[in-house]
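Risk register update: the risk of archive-format incompatibility is retired. Evidence:
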Amino acid sequence: MTQETAPTVLEVKDLMTQFDTQDGMVHAVNGVSFDLKRGEFLAVVGESGSGKSVTMMSLLRLIDMPPGEIVSGEANFGETDLLQLEIDDLRDVRGGKIGFIFQDPMTSLNPVLTVGFQLTESLRLHTDTPEKQLEQRAIDLIDLVGIPDAASRLDNYPHELSGGMRQRVMIAVALACDPQVLIADEPTTALDVTIQAQIIEIIKDLREKLGTAVIWITHDLGVVAGIADRVLVMYGGQIVEEALVGDLYGDPKHPYTHGLLGSLPRLDQKGQELVNIKGQPPNLYEFPSSCPFAPRCPYVYDKCHAENPPLIAIENGRKVACWWDIENERPRFGS
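Archived output:
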């Protein structure tokens, strides 16, 4: 079965999330829509504050409410809209059917509980594993994520492990119940390059073995190139481009994507100056009535300030939210 014919496991429609702060309403996620196929590796990229993490945390209602509020949208996981589930039913999905690897394992792992307890607790909550088999299952999981001397680690507390090992434990907890979807929120941040590569390989291997669909949130475009099937580029709380990873890197359609890729050092472009995206990120206190990238865009024209472009399919399953056709140097959609 190819990726194109694989069934959809998650479909998100017009998701909007905002936060009521002392300084005003922050429009963090503005009409995000996407789908995820079984076994697919979907990367979500963009600079800090673009709405990547808030989008994915909103799906499982992991944001603090208040001040956060999911204003509208659907998150269909099979036949179930996650945004309409009762909280007790949603807890069965969290960790059981959808795993979540958080960015900082020191704040996500309980510092006063052993690694073994935290692994077996997840198994108790979401599976029918017999009590006498829980410890062996926990050992198997620790071994699966590449931690040596797995049996001896069950009695360790998080602070007794290195950063890389803690992150591996987080992966083990997320995978304990063989989830259908795994969401990884910048899981290699603050880890050295060697450990980053090891964790990426672990996720790739587990995806192949278990058929788990992966959503990988990152700002590191260098990592994405080697692991993803498809990429969502986010800016100002919305998706501005969607494409297969090869298409995105080979021929980006949105000016923001051009800037992101142009800011990456490349061995085949020695001596060339890296792209600098001038200006500042958008003010999220204002709901976008125009293109959020317009103040920083080298191709901006009148329509960009007058109307926020929707995400529209253009070719080969690609989508872009831009009024200007960079390749043909003319307005897109006849505008």
